[in-house]
Amino acid sequence: MIDLPQGLIRLGAQAGSKADAIAQVAALLVQNGNVAPGYVDGMLAREGQANTYLGSGIAIPHGTPETRDLIRQTGIAVLQVPGGVRWGVGGERVRLVVGIAAASDEHLDILRRLTRVLADDALVEKLSTTTDPADVQEALTGERPAAATTPTSGSDLPYTAQVMLPNPLGMHARPATGLATLVRSRGGRVRLSRESGESADATRLMEVLSLGLTRGTPLTVSADSPELLAAVTDAIRSGLGDDLSAAPASTAPVRREPDWVPDGAGATVDGVAAADGLVVGVTRQHAPRPLDVRDEPGDPAQEAARLDNALAAANAELDTVISDVGAKFGSHKAAIFRAHQELLTDEGTVQDTVARILDGHGVAWAYRAATDDRIAQLQKLDDPTLAARAVDLSDVQRRVLRQLLGIREADVQAGGPVILLAPDLTPSDTARLGPDTLLGFVTAQGGPTSHTAIIARGLGLPAVVAAGNGVLDIPDGTPAILDGSAGRLYLNPSEADVQSARERQGVLEREREAARAARFEPGATRDGARVEVAANINRAADALAALEAGAEGVGLMRTEFLFLERDSVPTEDEQEREYRAMAAALEGRPLIIRTLDIGGDKEVPYLGLAHEDNSFLGLRGIRLCFERPDLFLPQLRAVARVAKDYPNVHLMFPMISTLEDFRRARAIFDEVRAELGAPRVPLGVMIEVPSAALIAEQLAPEVDFFSIGTNDLTQYTLAMDRLHPQLARQTDAMHPAVLQLIALTVQAADRHGKWVGVCGGAAGDDVGALLLTGLGVKELSVSTPQIAGVKAALRQRTLGELQALAREALAQPNAEAVRALVRPPQPEGATA
Ligand code: PEP
Ligand code: MG
Predict the structure, then answer these.
(1) What superfamily does domain 523-605+615-821 belong to in CATH?
(2) How far is ligand 2, taken at its centre, from the CA of residue 15, in Å?
(3) pLDDT recorded at residue 87
(4) The domain made up of 6-141 is a member of CATH 2.60.120.10
(5) Segment Disordered: which positions (predicted)?
(6) Which of 77, 134, 71 has its CA nearest to residue 110?
């Protein structure tokens, strides 16, 4: 008896031609591992010999005998084309395409059932239009699957693994798009399931977003092959393109005291700071014209074709937006609109729309109903970052409806430079805004991590979000000052306030320009104390961008990413090539390579490591390397080889917790060097376990440098899992307990003439960079976009000032008090 898993059924498909339909059904068989990709040629050749139309709108394409050796496992796939596709010269239209890959005669049972279906018009109609794959499974196999028929059911896929979502902002649209693209590019099926039992097909963006996955959510990933499972779990663990060292989303951002306040404003609107900047202007309400969507049913095939055209036109529009935004602000900003393209083609949404069309509704009404359901689902999610994705989907919905209704969007920019007030803005609205015609905006709703806020930052437009519905009552033309950094809109300011705001604007503008223009200057305090500002990167390909942003070297190369982004261990040669490329690109600037830090949240499934109950406290980092010389030795050899040609190579070991750890690692490396005739390489220890900080005095004489990993040092000192969503706001490296350990480390290093760097997230934090310098740190290794800002912040203070601040910080009761100490210096022209 042959079974028909859900992955071999595609409902609500559209096909432009018979060949297209055959290609789609063949792709299902390929994806499920039934046939090799060339089988489709056999299916097409067979159609040339004999038409496979069975009758009643059903066809059974299958390969020629010559292509039988491309069959790996007998199976059938069903493509439902509710709008029909022309099959033969006789003009017959097919709505059910049953692709057959039969190595023997196991499929005969299904053919027998098909002939029974043929005789039952009502059943044919049902199978040609159903949106429930279980109907097809039941009709063709005689069994109705108990589960796995709805998006929220469990998985029927054989290979499973557990992962913890590491993304600071949870599974938002960009990583979800990356996941869908990965699964599609490799073929096959993947489901993500939560402990609660809800699950989603990884290629369906809406389903994945609706799971509401926040950082640290345990997930079961299931796939139909072990290779696909490994690729997907690796990609999830490495963040699907997100920067995992970024600070986790905070639901209520720390409110900074404003750098500037007016003396005599009429009223102040308080919101959440979303994009920095200060502007003076008049307000204008932005109310997008409501779209008039009526239910005007038409011929279902024509309505489906209109949907197809509208989706294609919206996709083309998004292509233009992507290239415009990419050219102006870089491809990272445009990624939001690539996620929109993904939402546009979301299979579930298209299927639901088609189902409604088949129920007798007009296309615009059907599309709006299908997307409204999903928007409502997203809005219900607890996590504000994920709930903000409802705005993205509304944006996509409006784009498609405009196409269906033939409406051009009113120009948001019309009317000259204003401070725009709106209930919320979609990312598209925001991308259409420009600093030439718009001064900034305030929205009643929204959040600081919404894409609208991200685009505003890219455009350099000050923005305040979540200011409450009161902003919608402010009359057009009200004079106002918008302070994006403070999250405030001041209404009816006095002449003197306007004057003082303009002066402050000038200062801010000069600061920004100065930071960018001075990004190539060496990092130093105002009185010239040198602090090297380096970049954390994972790949040689990122080195040039880091240098262009002003990096003075690479303070942390996380080598585990070479292992995480693939299915097998990179060879010694492959590793050597990567390290060599990076060493060469840096043209003599330091390159600090960290040996493998696998374990904890960084799991590599293909290594077959034993499960650990407390993975952060187990065989992680150097401890694992001691157990696995098959991994450690090739890596050390690759580094030693590169060091023979590049004296800028440094090496450091992660998760050192005892003196013996370091001595043992050094001895192994010394042996490797001796074997290869490689020179001495500066050796460092990462200080990321409290015990290492406490024995820094013993370690210091033996090392060349220390690099403090504040991410781990904070989690181990405060006993707070760095991925724990509820503890995220307390897991702050500015806690005086962590600062004490850093101070101990620096003092020990100083006594032995060694230097200390910081490569954890605190180095790029505006308070962290200053306090760490005050504590005596000599190198700050940060993510590339933070480099110019960190250098500029350092230049504003003398070392003496920072040392005094650091001393005070050590005596504070908590991280909040530490942060409150480090206020920016009062700028000229400020009134408070
Ligand atoms: C750290 O722990 O601060 C660090 C830099 O290492 P990772 O984030 O890779 O654990
Ligand atoms: Mg670490």
Answers:
(1) Phosphoenolpyruvate-binding domains (3.20.20.60)
(2) 51
(3) 84
(4) no
(5) 134-155
(6) 77
Residues with Cβ–ion distance below 5 A, ligand 2:
688, 709, 712
Give the 3-state secondary structure of 126-176: HHHHCCCHHHHHHHHHCCCCCCCCCCCCCCCCCEEEEEECCCCCCCCHHHH
Residues catalogued as catalytic: 62, 172, 451, 759
Kindly give the distance from the C-alpha atom of residue 598 to the centroid of ligand 2, in angstroms, as a whole number. 10
For Cα atoms 249, 779, 510, give the angle at the middle one, nearest 5 degrees. Answer: 70
Gap from CA of 620 to ligand 2 centroid (Å) = 10
Question: pLDDT value at position 672?
Answer: 98
Q: Confirm if 616 and 600 have CB atoms less than 8 A apart.
A: yes
Q: Judging by DSSP bridges, how do beta strands 705-708 and 683-687 pair with one another?
A: parallel
What are the average pLDDT values for consecutive 10-residue runs of the chain, which has 832 residues?
81 90 92 87 82 78 82 88 84 87 65 67 87 86 58 63 80 81 87 86 81 80 90 86 54 51 81 83 81 90 90 92 72 76 85 85 94 85 67 88 83 59 78 67 76 67 87 89 90 92 87 87 97 92 90 95 82 96 97 94 80 90 96 98 98 98 98 98 98 98 97 94 66 94 98 97 89 98 87 95 97 93 52 31
pLDDT of amino acid 378: 81
Query: Using CA positions, which residue lies closest to atom 6 of ligand 1?
Result: 709
- Tokens 């590793």 belong to 575
Bridge partners of residue 218, in order along the sequence: 164
- Strand 218-223 with 190-194, pairing: antiparallel
What pTM does this model have? 0.53
What number of CA atoms fall less than 13 Å from residue 413's CA on the CB side?
11
Structure confidence at residue 751 (pLDDT): 98
The closest ligand to the CA of 759 turns out to be 1
Query: Domain 267-288+411-514 falls in which CATH fold?
Result: Glucose Oxidase; domain 1 (3.50.30)
Fold of the domain spanning 300-405: Enzyme I; Chain A, domain 2 (1.10.274)
Q: Provide CATH code, domain 159-237.
A: 3.30.1340.10
* Sequence-separated (6 or more) residues with CB below 8 Å from residue 802: 525, 770, 771, 773, 774
3-state helix, strand, coil in the chain (%, to 5): 45, 15, 40
Every domain of the chain with CATH number 3.40.930.10 lies at: 6-141
CA atoms of 205 and 210, how far apart (whole Å): 8
User: Smallest Cα–Cα separation from 686: which of 588, 555, 547?
Assistant: 555
* Closest-lying ligand 1 atom to the alpha carbon of residue 707: 5
Residues of the chain with CATH 1.10.274.10: 300-405
